[in-house]
């Protein structure tokens, strides 16, 4: 069984003291590839540096909506240069809208989402999207600024059926996290994963966040090794062979990130 963690933050300070051990556990669990996601210009540089020279490791460059208030054209130019220069970078993002916590003003989030979409399209890089409580505004921006069928993934999907349908209609992939394994919080997602075509599914940890069950009963920090738990739960919910599903999801993720 080959597994690809399509979204993790191994460049987070949470792994500063034991990264080698985390990578070893990842390998032992059959997780042969990972996308290390950037959320600021500096963080994107560390993602690329971490992926460099490690087979199966890739990175993305982008500005998270939480950090949109600090984004500017100079920072975007730095990210563009980084993405052009570093072959490890295979995607743009994490970018999007988050109107739940509002760490950045709405107008900043929208402005820099649009600019990042434009930049990703210019560079022909797939997009990694974050959406939370945008009340349709995220989809409005996609319809206006993202060519239909352009590759991308809605990371940590948690929306309504209508939003899911809209994403699928636009050709986007859907990222499934460890939330799927959580008894109460994951109930709606467990229903919705049956609505997603098999060729649009990818699995992710969002490590160090969103630790799946039962690991969350023992570990506070998530890590790529635990994506296997999410894949097994996904197979159980969809009533399919986990090894066959794992191979399909592997192929989906490679196709998404052009690896």
Structure report:
- The protein has one domain: Alpha-Beta Barrel (TIM Barrel).
- α3 links the parallel β3 (57-61) and β4 (89-98).
- It has nine helices and eight strands.
- Strands 1-2-3-4-5-6-7-8 form an eight-stranded parallel beta sheet.
- The protein has helices at residues 19-28, 41-51, 73-85, 106-123, 137-145, 161-169, 187-192, 227-238, 242-257; strands at 3-8, 31-36, 57-61, 89-98, 127-132, 152-154, 173-176, 201-203.
- The protein starts with a strand and ends with a helix.
Named at the architecture level, the CATH assignment is Alpha-Beta Barrel
First-residue to last-residue Cα separation: 18 Å
Low-confidence stretches: none
| Number of strand segments | 8
Structural class: alpha/beta
Beta-strand portion reads 15-25%
